[in-house]
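Hey, resending since the last one bounced:
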Amino acid sequence: MKHLVIFCITAFSLLSCTKENIPTPENNAKEEMNVSYGPSPLQAMDVYFPQGYTKETPVVFLIHGGGFIAGTKEDFTTQAQLFRDQNFVVVNLSHRLIDTTGLLTLPPTHMESSIKISDEVADIHTAVLKYISMSPSWGSGTVRMYMAGHSAGATLSMLYVMGDFNKESHVKASGNWAGITDLSIPDDALLNDMDPRFIELLYRSTGQMPSTSTALYFMAVSPYWVAYKDGPLPNISIFPERNVVFNMKGEVDYFLNATKNFHQLLRDKGVKEKLSIYADEDHGFGTHPESWKKLIKETAQFFLSIP
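The structure tokens again:
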């Protein structure tokens, strides 16, 4: 059981977005907590307003991590408060999750999940629409809206910003904190090195078994290929040097190279981008006490630089 818990943390990064040991900023202005945007208890969001906010104050939507199967907005409370310190209205949201029934056993139970990655992206869209509908009564604006997330939440953030739901570019840029930019399988031999529980997670994410023959399904949930097909918007990626999530051979280089390829695509398309690699930092940005504060400030500055 102990080894299974360790696997849950490292392989799926279930707890990588928990509250960090960061000084909590003092409460400013007001908060709207547990605003429902759907019938599920997980379809809820907390909205943090900085002191003196107006309709011109920028807005950021934050998406927690958890391997698409775990986590809630409460895991990202500290990060939301730190972003509010950058004078942003912050919408910190939860979303429905992929079914984990029998997923963590060996061998895992093979079953389809009623919630897939596409449903999680749809939840984010519904939350954005809810914020837009409520903003007049809150006195906040919708002109400068952005989105950022960690790990799986970063992948969801990029998928939303660069996908069909955001065709009118209401959300102008994405922030990728240690997220995966490409979930497609370029070579079936890679599956031999994967834990069967991760392969099952990929199946539940799309309803298709991962392979080169089903690549289109996984390209559809890969930010790189969505940006390649639909056209990208500005993005900042902050990537930890020791970004170990799945404990696969060559994992750090594989995902770093995928992120570099993603940013090369943005440059080739003439889109504003920035890639920062944090030395001696882990997937959860927990090695150095100031890392979260630093990366949120850097992300905020990037967002504000977009015309």
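The first strand starts at residue 30 and ends at 36.

Sorry for the duplicate.
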